């Protein structure tokens, strides 16, 4: 199995949890919440102001506080980010 990145997202109650990233694009970030057979997949989409990504899983909202521009820069060919190697289109 390929090693996946982990990011920290905030829940609506203010709790910070670590989730596993399965796919990244400027339009959406797919994450797995939990480990093992009980993990749930969630799609984080850009907010209206493009300053964060938000999604809902089991009625709870998750927020990833990075802008669309920051993600786009991480994915660009000129980027020296570790995401460049893992998340090519």
In one word, what is the shape? globular
**Percentage of β-strand residues:** 35-45%
| Whole-number mean pLDDT | 86
Number of strands: 6
Compute the separation of the termini in Å. Answer: 19 Å
Q: Could you spell the SSE succession in H and E letters?
A: EEEEEEHH
Mind telling me the C-alpha Rg? Answer: 13 Å
Poorly predicted runs of 5 or more residues: none
Number of alpha- plus pi-helical segments? 2
Question: How are the strands ordered across the major sheet?
Answer: 1-2-3-4-5-6
- Helix percentage: 10-25%
Structural class: mainly beta
Described by strand count, sense and barrel closure, the largest sheet is:
6 strands, antiparallel, barrel
Task: Characterise the protein shown here.
The protein is mostly beta strands. It has helices at 68-75, 83-86; strands spanning 6-11, 16-25, 28-33, 40-46, 53-57, 60-64. The protein has a six-stranded antiparallel beta barrel with strand order 1-2-3-4-5-6. A hairpin with a 6-residue loop joins strand 4 (40-46) and strand 5 (53-57). The longest helix is centred in the last third of the chain and has 8 residues, at 68-75.
Brief summary:
This protein has 89 residues and is mainly beta. The protein is 13% helix and 44% strand.
């Amino acid at each position: 199995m390929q090693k996946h990145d982990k990011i920290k997202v905030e829940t609506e109650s203010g709790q910070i949890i670590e989730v596993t990233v399965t796919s990244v694009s400027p339009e959406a970030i797919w994450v797995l919440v939990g480990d093992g057979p009980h993990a749930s997949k969630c799609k984080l989409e850009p907010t209206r102001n493009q300053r964060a990504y938000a999604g809902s899983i089991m009625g709870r909202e998750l927020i990833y506080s990075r802008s669309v521009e920051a993600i786009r820069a991480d994915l660009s060919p000129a980027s020296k980010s570790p995401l460049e190697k893992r998340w090519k289109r």
